[in-house]
Amino acid sequence: MSDADTENTNENIVLECLLESPPEKVWRALTVPELAAGWLGEPGDGGREPAYEILDTEPCSRVRYTWRDEQTDAPDTLVTFEISPAPDGNTWFRLTHSHCALPRLAANSNGAPTARAA
C-alpha cells in the first residue's frame, strides 16, 4: 500500500490508499472467502461464528459487510470497501467502517412473527 490516508469523521473510520494490484485481483481478495480471510481474518476461529458477512456487492466496485464484535453484545456495524481503476494498473481503495448500529437478525428470520389466539 502507498499514499494511505485515514480519517475519523462522524463516527466513521475511513481509509483511502492506492494498491499496487489490478482491481480484479483486489475484488477477488475482498469477495472470495478463502482470500478475504487474508484481509479480514479467518472467520470461525476457535469454533465461533464468522465476524463478518457480505450484505451486498456492486461487481468490481463495492462490497458491504456486516461486522460484529463477538466478544461483546454490541450491535453489528457496517464496513464498505470501494475500489476503482487507477493509473498503471493499480487500484484506488477506500474502506469505510460505519459505527451506526445495524440490527442483528434472528437465526430464523424467514418472515414476520405470527401469534395465534389461545
Automatic annotation (TrEMBL):
UniProt domain Activator of Hsp90 ATPase homologue 1/2-like C-terminal: residue ranges: 21-107
Pfam short name (any one): AHSA1
Similarity-based family: Belongs to the AHA1 family.
Source species, domain of life: Bacteria
Name of protein: Activator of Hsp90 ATPase homologue 1/2-like C-terminal domain-containing protein
Signal peptide range in chain numbering: none
Gene3D superfamilies cross-referenced by the UniProt entry: 3.30.530.20
Organism field: Nitratireductor aquibiodomus RA22
